[in-house]
Amino acid sequence: MKTISKTVTFTFIIFCLLFVPLKAQTTFYVAVNGNDNNPGTIEKPLATLTGARNAVRNLKSKKPLTEPVDIIIEPGIWYMDKPLILKPDDSGTEEAPITYKAAPQAKPKFYGGIKITGFKIGKNGIWSMKVPEKILQNKGFNRIYINGNAAHMARTPDSGFLKIDHVTQKIIEKGEGRIALKAQQTLFFDSVNFIPLKQIKQNELKNVRFITYHKWDFTIRPVDKINNDSLCIVTTGKGMKPWNPIQNGGRIIFENYAAALTAPGEWFLNDNGILFYKPRKGETPENSEVIIPVLQELISIRGNHPSGQKVQNIRFDGLSFSCAQHPVSPNGMEPQQASLTVNAAITVKGAVNIVFNNCRITHIDQHALRFGKGCSRCVVSHCYINDTGGGGIYIGDAKPAENQKTHHITVDNNIIQNGGNIFPAAVGIWIGQSSDNIISHNDIGDFYYTGVSVGWTWGYAPSLAKRNKIVFNHIHHIGWDLLSDMAAVYTLGKSEGTVISNNVIDHIHAYSYGGWGLYTDEGSSDITMENNLVFSTKTGGFHQHYGKNNTIRNNIFAFAGICQVQCTRVEKHLSFVFENNIVVFDTGMVLKGPWSKINIGMDYNIYWNTKKSHYDFAGMSFSKWQQTGHDRNSLITDPCFADADNFNFKITDKSNSDKINFVPFDYSKAGVYGEKEWIKKARLPKVTITAFNKAVRENMKRQ
Question: For the chain, what percent of residues have pLDDT higher than 70?
Fold first, then answer.
C-alpha cells in the first residue's frame, strides 16, 4: 500500500510539472555588456533594444501575454546601428502592456550616430581626419556633436546675413499649377555682399548650398554657377511661390566651403571625405567625444494602415535619445511652411496607447516626435526635448484622412525648447488634421517660427481639427528676428470646439510683420480664446486675419510694440467677439486694421496706457470709436495690476475690472509642474534671454 501511494504521488507531481503552466519570464534586462543571444535575465542580459523586442516576440509566440512585460535598461551608452522597429506583432495589451524603461537611478542613452576618433591638429589649429566610409555612405548630416554640443556646417557670414540685391526668374517648365515645375533663379548682389563668394573655389561649388529666409519660410538650394562679372549666383529648382518668393533685399547665408571655416564650432567636409573642424576654446582631440549622426530614425512604430492592425500598449520610460539626421537633398529644400516634410527621430503611425514618459530627445537634426496617421490615445508626459534641427512634437497629417484619423493625443508637462536650428520654420507643437488632442502645461520656448500651430486647412474647407485644447502652457521667446507672419499660437481653418485658454505667452517677435501672441489665420472658426496672459509681443496680443465666430474673452493683453489688437479681412459674417479683456500698453496703436468695417462684437473691455497719454483706435479717438457701436460699455481706466511694468499682473483692486465682468485667473498655474528641479529646468539660460532681447532691440531699430 505504501509503495503504491508513493508511486501515485510521484506520478501526480510529474503530471503537474508537465501540464501545469510555469510562470513565463516577463522581465528582460538590457546592458552594454550583454548579448542578444542571452536569455535577458539580470545575470545574462540582452545587448540592444532590438534584441529585447525579439525576446518579447519569442515570449508571445509561445503563449499570449497575461501580465505586463518590463524591459529594464541598465546604465550605459548605446550607439545604435539601426532603429528600433515595432510592428503590430510587438504590441502589448491593456492588461499586459510592454514597457521599455530605465533601471532605477539609471539614465541610459541611445545615440543614432557613430563616435569617431583620430583627429590631427593642423595649420591654424584646425583639426582634420578621414571620415569612416560607413559614415560617408550615409552622407547627409547637417551637424556633428562634440561633447554634447552641436557643431554647425561652416557658413558665411559667421553671424548675421548677406543681403540679396534683387532676384530674377526664368521658367523652364511651367506645369499647370501656380508654381512652375522647374525654374532658374538668378540672385544678384552688390559689390560688398558679393565679396565672400569670390572665395569659393570652382572645385568646391558642387558642395556649396545657400539658405535664404523669406516671410514665414526659407529655401535651401545648391549653387549652379557663380558669375564674378555680374555679381550673381544661379540656382535651379522649382519656381518661386508667387505669394512667398525669394525677396529682393532678402537675407542669405552660404555654407560648406573651406574659406567659410572661420568660427569656432564650425566644420567642413571636402570631396575626399576629410572632415575639418575649428575647435572651441578648451577642446582638444583627446578630451572631446565626437559623434556624427547616421540614423534618420531612432524608433519607428509602424501600424499596418490597410489592414487596420495597430501597434498597441507600449510604453517608454526614462530613456534618452540623441543624434539623428535629416539629410537635405542635393537639390536642396523647397519652401515648406512649418517644415512639414522633415522627418522625426521617433515616428509613430497606426498606433494606440503609446506612452513616452520622462524621456529625453535632444541634439537631433529633425523633429523630435511625430504621431502620423491612425494614432490615438497616446501620451507624451514629463519629457525634455531640446536642441532640435526641426520642431518638437507633430500630431496628425497635412491632409484629411477619414479612415486613418489621428486623435486623442495628450502632450502634458513637457519642456520643448531650442528648436528649428536647421529648419527654422519648424514648430514647437504642430497639430494638423487631428482632433480631440490636449496640449497642457508645457513649456515651449526658443523657436524661430511658432510655438503651437493648430489646424491645417486654409479657408472654410472641411477640416478634421476639432475640439483641440491648448491649455495652461507657457509659450515664450518665439521668433527672434528671423521669420515673419508668425505667433505663439497659430490657428488655421474650421476648428469647432477648439479652446485656447490659461496660457502665458510672452516675448514673441518677428523679423518684419507679425509676432503676435494669438493669431487666427485663414478661415479660423469657432475657436474660444480665454483666460490667457499675453505680453511683450511685437505686433499685437491678438490678430485675426479672417475667420468666423471666434470668441476672445477674459484675456490680458499687455505691452505689444506696434499695436495691441489687429484685424485684417472684412467679411459679412460675424468674425469674432472681443469682450471682458484688459489691454495695457505704453506705446503703439490700440487697434490696427479695418475695425469700423469688420463684423465683430466688441464690448466690456478695459484699455489703459500706463504712460497716460495717447489712445489710437484705428485712427480714431476712444469716443469716436464708441460711436461706431463698439466698446460702448468699455472703459479707459487703470486695471490696478500689482506691478505691470515688471510683468506682475495680479489685480490688487477689483473695482474697475468688475465693471467689465472680468474674472481674475491664476496665471501662475501655466507651464510645467512637479519637482522644483523640473520647474527650474524650464527656465531658459540667461545667455539665451540676453541674446533674444538684443535681437529684438536691434530689429526694432530697423523698423
Answer: 96
The answer to whether 389 touches 364, Cβ cutoff 8 Å, is yes
- The β-bridge partners of 333 are 220
Distance CA 498, CA 91 (A): 32
Confirm whether 35 is domain-assigned: no
Q: Output the CA–CA distances (angstroms, integers) from residue 639 to 31, 561, 607, 644, in the order listed.
A: 60, 20, 8, 10
* 209 lies in some domain: yes
Is 599 part of a structural domain of the chain? yes
With a cut of 50, say whether residue 18 has pLDDT above it.
no
Domain-located, residue 601: yes
pLDDT at 307: 74
Could you identify the residue written with the cell 555654407? Answer: 255
Candidates 419, 316, 417; CA nearest to 358 is 316
Residue 642 amino acid letter: A
Which residues touch 489 (CB under 8 Å, ≥6 apart)? 450, 451, 452, 453, 454, 470, 475, 500, 503, 505, 517, 518, 519
Cα separation, 552 vs 469, whole angstroms? 15
Q: Indicate whether 16 pLDDT > 50.
A: no
| Domain termination site, one of 291, 306, 330 | 291
Same domain, 549 and 664: yes
Tell me what the mean pLDDT of segment 300-326 comes to: 92
Q: Are 644 and 558 in contact (CB under 8 A)?
A: yes
| φ, ψ of residue 666 in degrees (nearest 5) | -90, 95
As given in the structure block, the three cell numbers for residue 494 are 474650421
pLDDT of residue 699: 94
| Same domain, residue pair 551 and 517 | yes
Number of domains the chain is built from: 4
Nearest residue to 551 (alpha-carbon basis) of 604, 588, 478: 604
Whether residue 569 is found in the same domain as residue 661 = yes
Cα 65 to Cα 42, 85, 90, 240, 352, distances in angstroms: 21, 20, 11, 55, 17
- 469-471/438-440 β-pairing: parallel
Q: Give residue 360's domain range.
A: 54-112+295-427+435-448
Both 544 and 642 in one domain: the answer is yes
Same domain, 495 and 591: yes
Q: What are phi and psi of 20, to 5 degrees?
A: -90, 125
Rounded-to-integer distance, Cα 99 and Cα 82, Å: 20
Q: What is the DSSP string of 455-484?
A: ----TTS-----S-EEES-EEEEE-TTT--
pLDDT at 139 over 80: no
Q: Are residues 633 and 493 in the same domain?
A: yes
Nearest to 28 by CA among 70, 62, 65: 70
Asked which of 260, 281, 304 is the last residue of a domain, the reply is: 260
Q: Is the pLDDT of residue 10 over 60?
A: no
| Bridge-based pairing state of the strands 155-156 and 311-317 | unpaired
Q: Which three cell numbers stand for residue 595?
A: 475695425
- Name which of 642, 646, 634 is nearest 565 in CA terms: 634
Q: Which amino acid is at 325?
A: Q
Query: What is the phi/psi pair of residue 561, to 5°?
Result: -85, -55
Q: Binning pLDDT at 50, 70 and 90, where does residue 703 land?
A: confident
State the CB neighbour count (10 A cutoff) for residue 68. Answer: 16
Same domain, 321 and 270: no
38-112-451 Cα angle (round to 5): 130
Q: Are residues 660 and 596 in the same domain?
A: yes
Residue 322 · residue 111 · CB < 8 Å:
yes
